[in-house]
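VOC domain-containing protein
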Amino acid sequence: MLTGLDHIIIGVDDLERATSIFNDSLGLAVSGGGEHPTGGTANRIIVIGDTYLELITVRKPEEAQQSMLERMAKGNGYFNYVIASNRIHSDSEAIQQRGISVIGPYAGELKSSDGKYRGWMRTDIERSDLVQRYPFLIQHDSTGEERRFRLAGWQTPPAHPLGATRVYSVAVVVQDLEEATARYQRIFGLNPSEPFSGQEFGVDANYVSFSFSESRQRIFLIAPLSTTLEPEDAPAHLPMPGALAGYLQRLGESICYMTLEVADLTEARHYLDSHHVPYTYQAKPRPLLWIHSAHACGATIILYQQ
């Protein structure tokens, strides 16, 4: 069964600087991480509820995937997101039975700086590139609090000064909403919502939502209302009109923002203000806060309070 959003991958060119930005400026406490034995990459981990953010960098370009190098050439930002499975072999088989090519499940592992290992099983959709338009599936070698403990570097995950309590959603920008909805439904076996306007989020786009019943998390597919904008004329950041169209033209179908639930949105604003982090605040139709990508290693982040 596909249970929710396992983690979100953010590519950075300087892992130490990115760690400082997320930990100190954004108030998202960084804990675990280490070196991948293959692929030429290293990471740091931010555990938020049952999901985590992965800050990843290329240490050895000669070992890294070409798609990763090409994406990094366009700047820091979202690489992909990952879907959690509690039965990865049967979930992978079900995807194959729907006519989709998969690679896996196959094993992976990470070694921490103090020599500890954690592992997982992974299945890729169509190709094994980390950077692509589809998320991969993952099942860790531990669950629940033990999984969170290992992810945080074999310690209790720290609380976040920003007040983040869970990852609520990811948004994937697409060219054709109807076509992409049918494609996602076929691949992952999830049921889509009816299309709805992005007015609630202040975005000039139409949305479709896929929900995970166990985690109450969502994947949003979003299509800009207009895609005629030239990339060089695109506004600097979401949710400015036209910014989404510029993002799609520059990076193609890919994750464009994530939404974090915070305990107190007012307190989160105070934290960001005290650390001089620019954001856009939206009071209506529902209170939301957009952290600008330029101040979050290329990753646009929405904050909201339940």
